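Let us work through a complete example step by step.
Step 1: write down the sequence.
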Amino acid sequence: MCAGQIKHPSEDLLRRVEELERQVSMLAELVKAWAEVSFPAGFIHPVELLMRQRGFNILSSNSLSDVLLPVSEDPKIHFLYYKYLGRYSFRLFLKDLLHKGEGSDWRSISRYCSYKTAKTFIKFLSQAGIVKFGEDGLSYRYTGPLVKSFGATLEWYVAEIMRREFLAPTLFGVKLSETLHGGDYDVLSILQGYLIYIEVKSSPPRGVERPMVEAFVHRLGDLSPDITIFLVDTELRMSDKIVVLFEEVTGRKPQRIIRELFYLDGYIYIINTKRSIGSNIRRCLQHFFANCGGLDENYRTSLLLSLGKSYGE
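Step 2: predict the structure and record it as tokens.
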């Protein structure tokens, strides 16, 4: 280059890009080497890791094939959908919409809430792509995903509560192998090293019968979770039927913690969803940690080490 010749800016930019590519390539190799040491079997979800340590393999989990989610891809719509699902009246509205499918007047779905609230719900569901209106503005048609029932959606929502509000690694719709009694678990979470199993019932108490409670108790025997929650999506009293069923099946009388939240020895909680699902789960966790004395250090240490971290970091 002759004296005084100006170097073209694009040449300098190209050189810097090539240097960055070289550094990124080196970093990728370092990460790969670290991952091979830290995750010899590949990345494993913390819940799956704990299941393997207990002798179980997860056959399937987190399937969205039967979950009612917004058709719209707008993140704001998905955020609002999660918030709306926290309202019992909205969940009832969705269940009724799924049951009816279509109709001449959307106001017929509003029997569980005021007209004003129902109008807000149906407008949001239209924005989410779950409902389409006819030309008259009253007739409607369900246009969301084809799902069998509301059950898997409620499981997904409870799992999201555990992830978002309690920052707990969580799987839903879990199918385990090597179990004696079916191996179907609605929601499994890990919180401070403890395994939490939540059985989710989307039907009201009249839809819960003794064989369901018996099957639930059998699954507890297979899994031996640290905390168990039997959740019925209702604002009705649990003491009229559900608590009675548990007493008949277990031979033990559940004790009331507060309102319609009950407790059996072994940290088994029986709850409804009045006030909110999240607040009732929180009350169960508060009760557990107030009585069990804090962290399970063995679980905590093994989980942190599996993630390639030093204990206490």
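Step 3: interpret the result. The chain has two domains: 75-142, 149-306.
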